[in-house]
Write a structure and sequence with these properties.
Blueprint lengths: L5 E4 L15 H14 L3 E5 L5 H10 L8 E7 L11 H9 L3 E7 L2 H8 L3 H15 L5 E7 L1 H7 L1 H14 L3 E6 L6 H16 L6 E6 L6 H10 L4 E4 L13 H11 L13 H11 L17 E2 L2 H9 L17 E2 L7 H10 L9 H16 L7 H11 L8 E10 L8 E10 L2 E9 L2 H13 L10 E9 L10 E8 L4 E8 L2 H25 L2
Parallel strand pairs: 1-2, 1-8, 2-3, 3-4, 4-5, 5-6, 6-7, 7-8, 9-10
Antiparallel strand pairs: 11-12, 12-13, 14-15, 15-16
Helix pairs in contact: 1-2, 1-11, 5-7, 6-7, 8-9, 15-17, 16-17
C-alpha cells in the first residue's frame, strides 16, 4: 500500500452540530471506545471553551486508556481583546489536557472583517500567537483553516498567508476546510497543488489535511481527490453527521481508501468493525439507521428476486463491488434464509456456543431473527438481547423467573406537581410467588425497581445492577400514536455494560421486554461466572 493516511474523527464535535443529533458525555465516551477499536487515529472530543458537555467529556476521558487513538480538543483563535494567557477559550483547551489541540482560524477576508470585525493584519496576528502560545501545552497542534477554499477563490494571496502564519505559530498539520460545502471536485485539485507549492515544498514534516462539508453532495469525492493530490490527513464524521447537510462521511471514505485506492491507514486492520460502529453511533444518538447508506446500510448488500439473486448466489462479484464481510456488513437475500448466517455463526463462536454451518437449529435462529426484525427489533446496539435469543433457541437459557403480570399507575393529583408513579408486579421464582410494588420517577423506573425488589432476595447480585440509559424511538409514523416503538435499555454492574431491546405498540410493554432481558442477562452472566470459579 502507498503511504499512510491519518483519519481524524469529529463526530463528537462537528457531528453533534447536526439537527436532532444529541449525545450525552457518557454516550461520547462509548463512541470514543468504538472509534478506538475501529483504528481511528485522532478523535475530536468537543469544544471545551464553548460547551459544558464537552468539558464533562474531557474530564471523563482523562481516566480512560485507549489502544491507539489520541484525543483532540477543539477551539478558536484567541479573541482580539484577550492576550493568549487571559483568553478563556485557550485556558479551557489547556485544562482539557489532551495530546492534540486543534485550532480553527479565518481564511476568508469577509469573515475577518464582517464576523470578527477586525483587520486582516490582526487576524494573521491572532492565528500565529494563539498557536505559538499553545505549543507547550500539547504534543501536537492542528490548524483548521476555516472557509479556506472560499477564501482562496476570493483572495488567494491572503488565504495562503494565513496558512503561513499558522505554520510559524507551530502547527504541524494544516487542514484545508470547505466549511460551506460548495466546492466541487474539479475545483479542488489545483487549489491543493498551489498550497503544496507554497507550504510543503521545503517542509517535509508539515502534513496537509482536508475537512469537507456535503452541501454540494461532494464531501466524500473531495476528500478522496485530496488524497490523490498528496493529502495525508482526512477529517470527517461517522455516517456523515454534521451541520446543515453534514460532513464528509468516514464510513464511505475509509473503505474507499483501503479497498479502492489501496491506501494504508490504521483502520485497515479493523475495518470489519465499520458496520458495528456506524450502527452504534446512530443508536447512541437515538436516530434511525439509513438503510441505503453505502457500505454500512442494511440495503448496501441486499438483493431481492430475479436476475440479481440468481447471479449473486453464483458469484457475488456480479452485483457487489466489495464483499460485505470486509466492512462487517452481511449479504441479504431477501427471499432466502441465507441472510445473516455467517453473522450468527460468528456471534455463536464469540459467545462460546456450539453451532455449526449444517446445524438445523441455525435455520431456526435465522427464522426467529427475521421475524423479530420484521417486528422492528434490531440487535446491533442490543447484543445482550440477541445472545439471550440464541441461547433460548439452543435450549441453553435457564428460566430464572416467570412473570404473571404487572400494573403501572400514574396519578396526577395536582397540576403544579409531578405525577406519582407506582408499579406492582407478580412473579414466580421456582415455586415461590412474589407480589410486590415500588414507586419510581416514571413508569420504567418504577417497573425496574419493583422487579428487582421482587427478585433480589433470590438473586442478591441484582443489587449491584443499575439502569444506566433508556432510549425510545418511534419505528413508523403511519399510525400516529398507535405506531410501534423500540426501546433500548443500557444496564451495568461493577464489571461491564450491556444493552437490551424491546418493541411494541405500547411503550410500557416495550420497556418491560427490555428490562426483563436485562435482568436475565445479568443472571445468566453471574451463573456462567460462578460455573468457572
Amino acid at each position: 500500500m502507498t503511504p499512510s493516511v491519518e483519519i481524524y474523527d469529529t463526530t463528537l464535535r462537528d457531528g453533534t452540530q447536526a439537527e436532532n443529533f444529541n449525545l450525552s458525555a457518557e454516550d461520547k465516551i462509548r463512541i470514543t471506545f468504538a472509534l478506538d477499536e475501529l483504528g481511528i487515529d485522532c478523535i475530536e472530543g468537543g469544544w471545551p471553551g464553548a460547551n459544558p458537555k464537552s468539558a464533562d467529556y474531557f474530564n471523563l476521558i482523562k481516566g480512560k486508556t485507549l489502544r491507539h487513538a489520541r484525543i483532540a480538543a477543539f477551539g478558536a483563535t484567541r479573541h482580539i481583546r484577550h492576550k493568549p494567557h487571559k483568553d478563556p477559550n485557550l485556558q479551557a483547551l489547556i485544562a482539557a489536557e489532551t495530546p492534540i489541540i486543534t485550532i480553527f482560524g479565518k481564511s476568508w477576508p469577509i469573515h475577518v472583517t464582517d464576523a470578527l470585525q477586525i483587520t486582516l493584519a490582526e487576524n494573521l496576528g491572532i492565528i500565529e500567537d494563539t498557536l505559538s502560545y499553545l505549543k507547550e501545552y500539547a504534543d501536537r497542534l492542528i490548524y483548521d483553516a476555516e472557509h479556506f477554499f472560499d477564501g482562496f477563490k476570493h483572495d488567494q494571496e491572503y488565504a495562503l498567508t494565513t496558512l503561513e502564519h499558522a505554520v510559524r505559530g507551530g502547527a504541524t498539520t494544516i487542514v484545508l476546510c470547505d466549511t460551506n460545502g460548495g466546492t466541487l471536485p474539479h475545483e479542488l485539485a489545483p487549489i491543493i497543488e498551489t498550497v503544496k507549492k507554497r507550504l510543503a515544498a521545503n517542509n517535509d514534516a508539515l502534513k496537509l489535511g482536508i475537512h469537507t462539508h456535503n452541501d454540494a453532495e461532494s464531501a466524500v469525492a473531495n476528500s478522496l481527490i485530496a488524497v490523490e493530490h498528496g493529502i495525508k490527513h482526512i477529517q470527517g464524521t461517522i455516517n456523515g453527521f454534521g451541520e446543515r447537510c453534514g460532513n464528509a462521511n468516514l464510513t464511505s471514505i475509509i473503505p474507499a481508501l483501503i479497498f479502492k485506492m489501496k491506501r494504508a491507514c490504521t483502520a485497515a486492520d479493523h475495518i470489519e468493525q465499520l458496520y458495528k460502529t456506524s450502527r452504534l453511533v446512530n443508536e447512541m444518538a437515538n436516530l434511525p439507521h439509513n438503510r441505503y447508506q453505502p457500505y454500512v446500510g442494511e440495503s448496501a448488500f441486499a438483493h431481492k428476486g430475479g436476475i440479481h439473486v440468481s447471479a449473486v448466489q453464483r458469484n457475488p462479484l456480479t452485483y457487489e463491488h466489495i464483499a460485505p464481510e470486509q466492512v462487517g456488513n452481511n449479504r441479504r437475500i431477501l427471499v432466502s434464509e441465507q441472510s445473516g448466517r455467517a453473522n450468527i455463526l460468528h456471534k455463536a463462536q464469540k459467545w462460546g456456543l456450539t453451532l455449526k454451518q449444517d446445524d438445523p437449529l441455525l435455520a431456526s435462529i435465522i427464522s426467529e431473527l427475521k421475524d423479530k426484525e420484521n417486528q422492528g427489533y434490531t440487535y446491533e446496539a442490543a447484543e445482550a438481547s440477541f445472545e439471550l435469543l440464541m441461547r433460548g433457541a439452543l435450549g441453553l437459557q435457564r428460566k430464572f423467573f416467570r412473570v404473571d403480570g404487572f400494573r403501572v399507575m400514574n396519578n396526577k393529583y395536582r397540576m403544579d406537581q409531578p405525577p406519582l408513579t407506582e408499579a406492582t408486579i407478580r412473579l414466580y421464582v421456582g415455586g415461590n410467588e412474589v407480589h410486590t410494588a415500588s414507586m419510581g420517577d416514571g413508569p420504567v423506573n418504577a417497573l425496574d425497581r419493583a422487579m428487582r425488589k421482587a427478585l433480589t432476595r433470590f438473586y442478591p447480585c441484582l443489587e449491584e445492577m443499575e439502569l444506566m440509559d433508556y432510549k425510545v424511538r418511534v419505528l413508523s409514523g403511519e399510525h400516529g400514536t398507535e405506531a410501534k416503538v423500540r426501546v433500548l435499555v443500557e444496564s451495568a454492574d461493577k464489571d461491564c455494560h450491556w444493552r437490551t431491546v424491546g418493541v411494541s405498540v405500547n411503550i410500557i410493554e416495550a420497556s418491560w421486554q427490555a428490562l426483563v432481558d436485562s435482568v436475565n442477562f445479568k443472571l445468566m452472566k453471574e451463573e456462567h461466572h460462578d460455573a468457572t470459579r
